[in-house]
Fold these 2 entries.
Entry 1:
Amino acid sequence: MDPFMGSGTTAIEAVRYANSVHGVEVDPYARLIASVATQKYSEDEIGKISFLVSEIGRAFEHQSLYDDLKPRLANIEYWFGDENFSDLLKLKSAIFELTDEGKVREFLLAAFGDIIRACSKAERQSLKPYISKKYEKKPKRVLDEFLRIASKYIDAVSESQKHKSDGIVWEGFDATNFDVSTSVDLAITSPPYINAMDYTRCIKLESAWIGTADDDAIKTVRNAQLGERVRRNREVREDFVYSISRQHLGELETIDEARFKTAVVFFDDMRRNMEAVFRALRPGGFYYIIIGNSRIRGVDVPTHQVIAEIAGQLGYKWDKYFLYRIRDHRTSIPRGDRGGKIEFEHALGLMKP
Ligand SMILES: C[S@@+](CC[C@H](N)C(=O)[O-])C[C@H]1O[C@@H](n2cnc3c(N)ncnc32)[C@H](O)[C@@H]1O
């Protein structure tokens, strides 16, 4: 189980070996990618998908546009040239015309979502959509890019019949409050960071196009993100989470009370998450949490330490602990001056006795 599933990195490995794979994730676009990447596709389904992809290519020029499929996000046109905007709508119209709700449509929508950034004017390098004024980017052509990505996806699922389990059993949307249908042996996750860059905004163009997001939906998902500043207004009991946080980052409370509060709420949310995972685990089961530290207003926040102490209070025992220096920062989330560069990742191996 991964209770912060994201786009499914852990699940993609897990479906090969585990009897069942469980997940919790609040972001609908991430859920779509994770589902498509872990489901089993039969030969028939793969054949049907391949046929539909070539059909889309063949009839693209004459495809009609459905206005009600346009993304409902303010200023979305800003991010695209006219031709690509219209071609994206054409492609989405074709997908909805040719498929019913279900696996095949999900597959095509995931591939569609994957081409959005490349076909937009937004930089590839920055995670958050951003249009450079200095260097003009040449957006990819919609149909070509779709055909390329779809064929990559088809290759990727061609072996999925061999997997031990079929897709993810979704156990809920909120990692701080869920119950599972069956007890699990192992949970592993990398939770969000305090004050991290806002994931929801990073994927807003994709979410808007695949139809899971308008301005309101994006706000709802953002407000659910652990570590988001907006959550600091949540009431937190003055209990051990508070005193452990204060012990490790008391200095921050004097420098910047609001950011201290954001951190406390983050740790309180992690407490709830660890409680939910504790309930989900069978006795003797493990919870591995991979997390980096943060620096907030010049104060080092030993996130792993605080989480470890909270886990101890909840009844977890140690299995293992290790850390490693992050060698490749290309895939890590840039956080400007907000969180500091993450140098180490810590793996906390907890066990439910
Ligand atoms: C660090 S990412 C996980 C990355 C994942 N390992 C992957 O490979 O994609 C954290 C994920 O937690 C999700 N998340 C944040 N707050 C959440 C909450 N309260 N409930 C459920 N999911 C949440 C975010 O949407 C994000 O996808």
Entry 2:
Amino acid sequence: MKIVVVSDNHGRLEPLKDILMLHQDAEVFIHCGDSEMPAEYLSGYVSVKGNNDFYGDLPEYRIIDLNEHRILVTHGHRMMFLDNREMLVNKAKSLNCDIVCFGHTHVYENRIQDGIVLVNPGSLSRNRDGSQTSYAIITIEGNNIKTKRLEYKFGCKF
Ligand SMILES: [Mn+2]
């Protein structure tokens, strides 16, 4: 199963549309918040509310139940302090999730902490570590969960 994870496009529509087109073989598209867009622009994406999202009524977090795995989707700004991911991990555990997709930091991250897979795709507006704007692909085959970072270049026409 292929899952696409994006975050923090901060008003830029082009990457959201391009990424849907580029990955038509994906089963799920996740948006971890700070789109700064009304809900209609997020169609196709399972989306949550970021600290800069004032349109509509997006939830603070969502759970995607894939039978063998459960993904917690959240922006994460209320559940992180600097490099500390303990609150995110504990929230995932309390909700019986084994994967967390989050955003907010604008820095790509993929680590396993306490058995919980943490994935931050980076930002589709500007990455704070100076790297190219990015998103993530999670591939799940049984118990095997693989994550990779992909770069998004503005103006790409596939
Ligand atoms: Mn944010």
